[in-house]
Amino acid sequence: xxxxxxxxxxxxxxxxxxxxxxxxxxxxxxxxxxxxxxxxxxxxxxxxxxxxxxxxxxxxxxxxxxxxxxxxxxxxxxxxxxxxxxxxxxxxxxx
Length: 95
Known about the structure:
The chain is mainly alpha-helical. The protein has 6 helices and 2 strands; from the N terminus they run H-H-H-H-H-E-E-H. The chain is elongated, with a radius of gyration of 17 Å. It starts with a helix and ends with a helix.
């Protein structure tokens, strides 16, 4: 799903709010092995919406306004990092 969402950013941005649910259903239909009924129910039931809003608010309070963000020890890394960079930061944090 992550790759599909990333590759489809132009379609997502061009879709109005009223069409996003149907678009997400279409994306789900493209993923082999996805439990489609559970996926559809999750999107429609919105039971996790409050938890998502709370997580978003907590991130914004901490100054996180974009993704991906990696917090390793006291270091905050923005954006995609190489394996070598991540490994070095983890090694440093474990000292």
